[in-house]
Amino acid sequence: MTGGVRTVTLLLLASLASCVTACSGAGEAAMGSSDEELVLAQRCERDFGAPLRAKVSKARAALERSPTRFGAEVRGELDAGRVKVLPFCAMTSDHFEHFRKDVDLSAFGATPDEQRRRLRAGETRGMRSVHTQVYGYQWDDHVYIASNMSQELTLETLGHETRHVLRRAHERNFNDQRVTCVEELEAARAEVLIHKDTLTATEERALLDRVHDLYELDKLASGSCGY
Ligand SMILES: [Zn+2]
To answer: Contact at 8 Å (CB) between 50 and 6?
Structure first.
């Protein structure tokens, strides 16, 4: 977890959104909850999807200009659609079930249904809370990234979350601190490897210490991902 490119899903949202205006009047009998869904999708795309897409597009261009081995891999995954980047408000219901266990969503309300609805609506207070807790979140081939970050942080988060996708982190047991340590260390290394091809021993050690600290891995021996 910390902090991806959308292709098919966002294009679909965009086409649905255009239908809200272009197709109003059609199917009035079906108005109601599905109509509200379209409005939410339109707002999500306008306020979070489009700004995020612009940053990811710039990040991709930066990877092309100054390629590293890992950077080229990330670009390849994005271009092939094997990593799908979305804003948090476009989260699927399946992914939300995992997300709500990992992130405090109380700023969106008390119940999961309310939290999901208000996350989809992109309500300001709740989104601010999410964005302060996580830069990004990965599940399957989906990467959800905060849309309010600097270009640099967006690029690094893209590297971090893509590493999780490549290692299928969602299939691993993060209740085991050794697993969290290995996976988050790999993802933290990816944030650097997107800028340059090698890390010094000092940098490696600093990343390991940061992972221990950030994920509160108090059962692990200092300087290692083991007990
Ligand atoms: Zn992570």
So the answer is: no
